[in-house]
Amino acid sequence: MAAMENKVICALVLVSTLVLGILAEAQTETCTVAPRERQNCGFPGVTPSQCANKGCCFDNTVRGFPWCFHPKTIDVPPEEECEF
């Protein structure tokens, strides 16, 4: 019975680790980019959906700067591995 509990605990730890890893990868880019730092990713008249389909960010609240722009990469330090 105890062996089965250990397997369940190991499976839960593994799944949790994988989910957290995926979430961490998803947070390596952000659309919070200063207007002067925006690198154009679209074309005049691009729609929000066209911009998103290119994997880019859309923000039309700042005139004179690209509305469709590349996301900013966030430097995420690697996690330290723990030993069991």
Automatic annotation (TrEMBL):
GO terms for cellular component: extracellular space. Residues 29-72 form the P-type domain. Disulfide bonds join 31-57, 41-56, 51-68. It is found in: Secreted. Keywords: Disulfide bond, Secreted, Signal. Pfam families: Trefoil. It comes from the Eukaryota. Residues 1-24 form the signal peptide. GO terms for biological process: cell differentiation; cell population proliferation; maintenance of gastrointestinal epithelium; negative regulation of cell population proliferation. This is TFF1 isoform 1. It comes from Pongo abelii (Sumatran orangutan).
